[in-house]
Design goal:
Blueprint lengths: L4 H7 L22 E7 L3 H9 L16 H10 L2 E7 L10 H21 L4 E6 L5 H15 L3 E5 L1 E2 L2 E2 L6 H9 L3 E5 L15 H19 L2 H4 L4 E4 L10 H9 L6 H8 L3 E3 L9 H8 L4 E2 L9 H12 L6 H15 L1 H7 L2
Parallel strand pairs: 1-2, 2-3, 3-4, 4-7, 7-8, 8-9, 9-10
Antiparallel strand pairs: 5-6
Helix pairs in contact: 2-4, 4-5, 5-6, 9-10, 13-14
Length: about 350
């Protein structure tokens, strides 16, 4: 059975894979290394669930569906990544059925929690929330944050054609605001046009637009202002958001978008990860728009293979737009400040 990367993403992308769990890697990255906040994983229980529900074939399939813990730790050590905050961004439509949403999200989150439990100084996790069923998502958020020790939650940009600024998600944002939770957002194909351009994967541009639209919707709807204690990470450098600032502000002045003030506030309210990759093309604009203190290191492993992780890391390390303090903040310090539970595990 042959599944393309695009088809697999649409059909079940549990975004990052899972096969046998290997032994823990040496302590090379246990020191003051990078913290990878855009890091996917699919442990064995999650892989079994995906196979049972037809989202992955028993053998073969996409590369991310053959994740291996030993390979992951080797890649982390090679790039001096001390800890990866794991997540599994399955497209929302996978959980259209309510019972499946409850069982699948629970399997995802308990699997990731087990990975952290076995390797607390190498992994954290963002709990998956099935947004098509807000009441189930509320239950899962409470369970994951209170019982499993999740470091935050993952929310797909859209569910049922609705972006995260839709009022349907207000009860969930209210609860996350009460908890001062961290939310990682993750893109998928555009809801109204999931097919990519021929020969061009959705991840090249459609994912970026999906994130941009989600961010604008969060601003326009007032979700950011109503829930000021939620910290929101925009994947992939914020999509196009930081780079259309002038256009967005002009639209606001003309009554065709959020006000310029709201847009500027939001740019420095969001957090962004480097899994664009950031360097060298995007870093000057993002740093100018948002500031180095809002940027987090991210690889997109294992959707991105080891050689590409290394290429992006080398470009980041020699990026002339980054001062040594900014590089240190992005590599580690910003994540420790944003994710106190990770900081606590690393300092035990």
């Amino acid at each position: 059975m042959r599944i393309s990367r695009r088809t697999a993403l649409r059909a079940g992308a549990l975004a990052t894979a899972g096969a046998a769990a290997g032994a823990a890697a040496p302590a090379a990255a246990h020191g003051p290394g990078r913290i990878d906040t855009h890091h996917h994983a699919l442990p064995p229980d999650m892989r079994r669930w995906a196979i049972e529900h037809g989202l992955l074939p028993p053998r073969g399939g996409p590369r991310w569906g053959r994740w291996d813990l030993g390979e992951t730790l080797d890649a982390m050590d090679a790039n001096r990544i001390a800890l990866g905050v794991a997540s599994a961004p399955a497209p929302s439509f996978v959980f259209k059925d309510r019972a499946l949403a409850a069982s699948g999200a629970r399997t995802f989150n308990e699997s990731l929690a087990g990975l952290v439990r076995d390797h607390p100084r190498r992994f954290g996790f963002f709990a998956y929330l099935p947004l098509l069923h807000v009441d189930v998502a509320l239950e899962e958020a409470a369970y994951a944050l209170d019982e499993l020790g999740a470091d935050g939650v993952l929310m797909m940009n859209t569910a049922g054609g609705r972006y995260l600024g839709h009022r349907a998600f207000d009860p969930l944002f209210a609860e996350l605001d009460r908890r001062r939770a961290v939310v990682m957002t993750h893109p998928d194909a555009l809801p109204e046009d999931p097919e990519p351009l021929p020969g061009i994967e959705n991840s090249v541009a459609d994912f970026m637009l999906d994130t941009t639209r989600c961010a604008l919707d969060l601003i326009r709807s007032g979700t950011l202002d109503r829930h000021p204690r939620v910290s929101i990470i925009l994947s992939h450098g914020g999509g196009f958001l930081p780079y259309i600032g002038g256009r967005a502000e002009r639209a606001g002045r003309m009554g065709e978008g959020p006000s310029p003030d709201a847009f500027r506030r939001a740019l420095r309210r969001f957090h962004y990860d480097t899994a664009l990759p950031l360097s060298p093309y995007a870093s000057p604009t993002l740093l100018k728009a948002a500031g180095a203190d809002r940027v987090l290191y991210g690889t997109d492993w294992p959707q991105v293979n080891a050689s590409e992780v290394a290429i992006a890391r080398r470009a980041f390390d020699r990026d002339p737009a980054l001062t040594p303090p900014a590089r240190a903040a992005i590599n580690r310090h910003n994540a420790l400040r944003l994710l106190p539970t990770v900081a606590a595990r690393l300092t035990r």
